[in-house]
Design goal:
- The protein is of the alpha+beta class.
- It has two domains: about 1-110, D-amino Acid Aminotransferase, Chain A, domain 1 (2-Layer Sandwich), CATH 3.30.470.10; about 115-260, D-amino Acid Aminotransferase, Chain A, domain 2 (Alpha-Beta Barrel).
- The chain has helices spanning about 20-25, 45-55, 65-80, 140-150, 195-205, 255-260, and strands spanning about 1-5, 5-10, 30-35, 40, 85-95, 100-110, 115-125, 155-160, 165-170, 175-180, 180-185, 210-215, 225-230, 235-245, 245.
- A hairpin with a 3-residue loop joins strand 13 (about 225-230) and strand 14 (about 235-245).
- The longest helix is centred in the N-terminal third of the chain and has 15 residues, at about 65-80.
- It is globular.
Length: about 270
């Protein structure tokens, strides 16, 4: 079931108008929102990110778009579907030449955690700069990296920026563990500025078991790490088992799975 601008459809029933900006040029803004105990989490943070992205894309923001409206439509959707645990995908796009803004809501279950094997995608690069704040800007690159991973018979790929530094992955924000330090690419690298990234960084800092460092490194650094995991609200914590010939200590990632679960209970 999909909420399309306040009207509910099954995925088979919903037909987008040909003038929809997603069909015409892929022009949209999306955010994945975590649901716990029948409540959407971090709604205000998502709201601020979405509004900032819409302004960057010069989309006309209706005056009615408030945090309270977002909370209300999300709760209404979950109540109608009896959806209590999982992830909501909230998207905004333009309808026709009038540039009227519409939204859609979809629901997903977070998949069970499993280890993955990764490769490096370097056919195209993320551009360093302000477009990192628009999460849909490099969607085609992430889609290409996922298709490349399938060709290579691996689960996903690490993604580079135009300086050939590690910036992101096709499966979530990149976190590397070495001794008692966690490294993650900085925003300057071009990594996506996701609420899930911000929250994981906050949880690591407040827990104080590990030191967190934002650092831009080359792919060669992946060979030196004790463990690597990827994180997003959509997929949860994903431990990386192997990158090329390097095998990681996946048991170290269970701590971060517990950290994410503990901080999203309430």
């Amino acid at each position: 079931m999909i909420d399309f601008n306040g009207t509910y459809y099954t995925k088979e029933e919903l037909i987008l108008p040909w003038t929809n900006s997603i069909l015409q040029n892929g022009y949209s803004v999306s955010s994945y929102i975590l649901m716990r105990n029948s409540r959407p989490l971090f709604v205000e943070e998502h709201y601020l990110k979405i509004m900032a992205q819409m302004r960057i894309l010069k989309m006309g923001i209706p005056m009615t778009y408030t945090p309270e409206l977002f909370q209300g439509v999300l709760l209404k959707f979950c109540k109608k579907l009896d959806f209590n645990e999982g992830v909501l995908k909230l998207s905004f796009f333009e309808l026709g030449s009038s540039n009227e803004i519409a939204y859609s809501i979809e629901s997903f279950k977070v998949p069970e955690s499993k280890t993955v094997q990764m490769d490096l995608y370097n056919d195209y690069y993320i551009q360093e700069g302000s477009h990192r704040f628009v999460n849909t800007h490099f969607d085609r690159l992430y889609e290409l990296s996922s298709r490349f991973a399938k060709e290579q018979e691996v689960d996903g790929c690490f993604v580079l920026n135009n300086s050939k530094k590690l910036a992101d992955s096709s499966m979530g924000t990149l976190f590397c563990i070495k001794d008692q330090t966690v490294f993650t690419p900085s925003l300057a690298s071009g990594t996506r500025d996701l609420v899930s990234r911000i929250k994981m960084m906050q949880w690591i800092k407040s827990d104080q078991k590990y030191q967190l460092i934002e650092e831009d490194t080359t792919p060669f650094a992946l060979q030196k790490q004790d463990a690597v995991f990827l994180y997003s609200f959509e997929k949860g914590v994903i431990p990386v088992k192997q990158y090329r010939k390097k095998t990681y200590q996946v048991e170290l990632c269970s701590y971060f799975e517990e950290l994410a679960f503990k901080n999203t209970l309430n």
